[in-house]
Amino acid sequence: MEVTLHSLIEGVHCARGLVVVVDVYRAFTCTPLLYAMGIVEDILVSTPEEAFRLRDQDPDLLLVGEVEGKPIQGFDLGNSPSQILRLGSSFFEGKRVVQRTSSGVQGALAALEVADEVLVGSYTLARATARYILSRRPPRVSIVAMGWSLRIIAPEDEWCARYIAHLLGASPYDHHQALREILFHGTTQKFLRGQRSYFPPEDPVLCLQRDIFDFALGVRREENRVKVFKVS
């Protein structure tokens, strides 16, 4: 099994085989948490307008996401795991969600054009994701760290990609070094400074926990929509 590491949207374009799209802050920390809270479906869209069109067809859909980190006017939630946690499972049980983000979701949609199979990744999903990949033994695995808005390297995504590769037996990993680089970098500090409500300081606490969920998440086209689903 060949495992390669890539970055940003350019990395998606050259990825092949089974592709893992990594977005730690915060899309693919939110997605498994939403499933853990009881949602039954997660639909990925590229634009807010597409999300609004889907809700016009089904008013019960929950719209979750951001543009450049900022909540979208008219959406039900931003892209924040602490907001999801605060609302609790009673809010999400049985709901269907539409998710739009500037990095992870865009990367997953792009990966469908080049990949044999697409998974989404974060620290919370890492071990379950690696376990699934090892059970499949694909000849090629591409792990893509999506970064900030597809264009700026983010250490949390780079290190999480290395962690997944490490769990696949393909890369060394030092979690203390990872945390040192992640915590003192601007991508984390913008949360810890607490200057903007849509970057709550609680989010990194949730996003940097490893191996929380016992399921992996795949992405596929189904009925002209792109959906995230549990794989085991």
Key structural traits:
alpha/beta; putative 2-phosphosulfolactate phosphatase; 10-stranded mixed beta sheet; 11 helices; 40% helix
Protein architecture, described:
With 232 residues, the protein is an alpha/beta fold. The protein has helices at 8-14, 27-36, 48-57, 81-87, 89-92, 104-111, 126-136, 155-167, 175-183, 186-192, 202-207; strands spanning 2-7, 18-22, 41-44, 62-67, 70-71, 96-100, 117-121, 140-145, 216-222, 225-231. The chain has one domain: ComB-like (putative 2-phosphosulfolactate phosphatase, Alpha-Beta Complex). Helices cover 40% and strands 23% of the residues. It has a 10-stranded mixed beta sheet, sandwiched between helices. Strand 4 and strand 5 form a beta hairpin. The chain is globular, with a radius of gyration of 16 Å. The protein starts with a strand and ends with a strand. The relative contact order is 0.23. The model has no long low-confidence stretch (mean pLDDT 97).
